[in-house]
Design goal:
Blueprint: E1 4-6, E2 12-14, E3 18-19, H1 25-38, E4 42-44, H2 52-62, E5 70-75, H3 82-96, E6 103-106, H4 126-138, E7 145-148, H5 152-161, E8 166-172, H6 186-194, E9 198-202, H7 220-229, H8 233-243, E10 247-248, H9 255-262, H10 271-278
Parallel strand pairs: 3-4, 4-5, 5-6, 6-7, 7-8, 8-9, 9-10
Antiparallel strand pairs: 1-2
């Protein structure tokens, strides 16, 4: 049984998906195959992940209809000018072996540092970027337009500029951890919801790309609540993120963890447990 989130367009997106950053070649193909067998129907990737060929191959070999799978991809920060967006979108479609992607995001704002000291060269206006996004949307190459790593002000600007609705803001979001200064705030999540923009949470376990490196999962409060439900600390952490009304895309190449990550719909956190997790 899968939970779905309704986008501003009226279409539904699975609330649990597979993040693929850091999965490559055979390992990536295997993870996609396992995930689809387990019932995953949302796959998140990006041009910068260098794994779209493997994902496309695994999808076509799975036997699952393309129409059943929601594919998200992203245009990298350095390619947000008009011509580059059009070109990179075509590359994404070719690599994935598909005619369209369900959701295309700007991977970062054009002027984002992305953990680098210097401001990136060739910063592009949001108007130019979204003009290109709207064009490929009109051509049917993408079904939804979204953004990633946008704060409230930039998201509001994007909504004012784009003719097509901004459906999703993908952000770094997980339980509070003092070791991570990149975690999106609950106020940003709330602003997105008020603006009818769905929130897609990457690094929902505070691991992988996250500066916290997954240490959050060792917290005794998380372990205690997990034991009360017969779940793992990771499952409880994911449940808390999902209960904030978000879409989650944890990454894993492990068959066991892929199964655990999708099995979080059969229990509920109590009000007291949620309050304890809020205070971590």
């Amino acid at each position: 049984m899968m939970k779905y989130i309704r986008l501003v367009t009226g279409e539904l997106i699975p609330a649990v998906g597979l993040g693929t950053a850091g999965l490559f070649e055979d390992k990536c193909e295997q993870a996609i195959q396992w995930a689809l067998e387990m019932g995953y129907r949302l796959i998140d990737t990006a041009w910068a992940y260098r794994n779209q060929e493997a994902i496309g191959k695994a999808i076509w070999e799975s036997g699952v209809s393309r129409s059943e799978i929601f594919i998200t991809s992203k245009i990298w920060r350095d390619y947000l000018n008009y011509e580059a967006v059009l070109e990179q979108c075509d590359q994404i479609l070719d690599q994935l072996q598909v005619d369209y992607v369900d959701l295309l995001l700007t991977h970062w704002p054009s002027d984002a540092l992305v953990r680098m000291r210097d401001r990136p060269p060739n910063v592009v206006s949001l108007e130019e970027t979204l003009t290109a996004f709207n064009e490929i949307y009109q051509r049917g190459k993408i079904r939804h337009i979204g953004v990633s790593n946008y704060d409230a002000d930039l998201l509001q600007q994007a909504q004012q500029i784009s003719n097509a609705p901004i459906s999703v803001n993908q952000v770094h979001f997980h339980l509070n951890d003092p070791n991570c200064d990149e975690n999106a705030s609950l106020s940003l999540v709330g602003f997105c919801h008020q603006s009818e923009v769905a929130v897609m949470a990457y690094c929902p376990l505070a691991s992988g790309w996250c500066p916290a490196k997954g240490k959050l999962l060792q917290h005794p409060t998380l372990a205690e609540i997990a034991s009360q439900h017969g779940k793992t600390p990771a499952q409880v952490a994911l449940k808390w993120v999902m209960d904030r009304g978000t879409i989650i895309i944890p990454k894993s190449g492990s068959k066991v963890r892929l199964g655990q990550n999708i099995r979080i719909l059969d229990f509920e956190l109590s009000r007291d447990q949620t309050a304890q997790l809020n205070e971590l």
